[in-house]
Amino acid sequence: MASSTALSCLAALLLLAAAAAPASAAEETRLRVYWHDVVSGGPNARVVQVAQAPSSNASATGFGTVLVIDDPLTEGPNLTSRLLGRAQGMYISAGKDSLSLLMAMNFVFVDGAYNGSSIAIIGPNQADRAVREMPVVGGTGVFRFARGYCQLRTHWFDAKTGDATVEYKIHLRHD
Ligand SMILES: *[C@@H]1O[C@H](CO)[C@@H](O)[C@H](O)[C@H]1NC(C)=O
Ligand SMILES: *[C@@H]1O[C@H](CO)[C@@H](O)[C@H](O)[C@H]1NC(C)=O
Ligand SMILES: *[C@@H]1O[C@H](CO)[C@@H](O)[C@H](O)[C@H]1NC(C)=O
To answer: Which PANTHER family match (predicted)?
Structure first.
């Protein structure tokens, strides 16, 4: 009797555990996009500086500068390659002694398999390093409940204009 009670308790616990388990195993997605910071081009620029430190607090790293972006995300490294989405958000020079950006962006997809979905990226970008890593903290559409990270490598940079192309390799787990 005692053991059958114990067994039914165990069965009830197992049922509870099963109910609490996620409905489906997390999906895994790896994708690569090229992020084009279009600083030059006057009215065609896709980056605007909206704030900077007062000149009395100027630093070599531009500490305190805030830029808002609506940068193209393309399939290939060339700006003319297929447009997959937009990187909308901002970056802030957050390092006083070293070049380190705080980036906060949504990658909003407008074409391809992820059209209508987005991912949210927030993290540090130590722009003078060859490889930088930032977390993906969430997503919408096919990327609901997304978590993951991206690795950034500068593909091209024009020191005169500030224009840059950066490869983003993104590794996600999501619903
Ligand atoms: C900014 O500059 C002012 C004036 O020189 C100075 O008093 C202040 O300490 C500076 N602030 C920082 C964070 O360096
Ligand atoms: C990008 O594509 C354009 C047009 O297809 C081409 O003229 C240009 O040379 C390409 N640029 C690079 C860096 O490959
Ligand atoms: C992306 O989705 C929108 C909304 O559903 C649609 O209007 C648009 O045509 C799609 N774009 C492409 C390139 O498929």
So the answer is: NUCLEOPORIN-RELATED
